[in-house]
Amino acid sequence: MQLESTLTCPQCSFQATEQMPTDACQFFYVCKGCGEKLKPLPGDCCVFCSYGSVPCPPIQERGKDACCK
Asked: What per-residue confidence (pLDDT) applies to 68?
C-alpha cells in the first residue's frame, strides 16, 4: 500500500506530496501554492481520490465502493 500521494491543485497546478491518513478520509486540503481550499469532487470520498496521484488507503485496500463516505 502506498501512503504518499502527490496532490495537484486544479486552480494553480501546484503539486505537493503528502502523507495520507490510514484511519480516515481527508475531506479538505489547503493548497500550499495559492491557498485554495480543495474538497472532494462529486462521487469521491476524499481529496486524495480527486486530486492525488494515488487514491486513499481504503480505496487501495478494498476498492472504490469501500470508501469511508
From this structure: 56
Question: Position of cell 470508501?
Answer: 67
Name residue, grid cell 481529496. 47
pLDDT at 34 over 70: yes
Q: What is the DSSP string of the chain?
A: ---EEEEE-TTT--EEEEEPPSSS----EE-TTT--EE-PPTT-SSHHHHHBSS--HHHHHH-GGG---
Rounded-to-integer distance, Cα 36 and Cα 55, Å: 20
Using CA atoms, how far apart are residues 30 and 68, in angstroms rounded to an integer?
A: 21
Of residues 61, 51, 62, 1, the one with CA closest to residue 26: 51
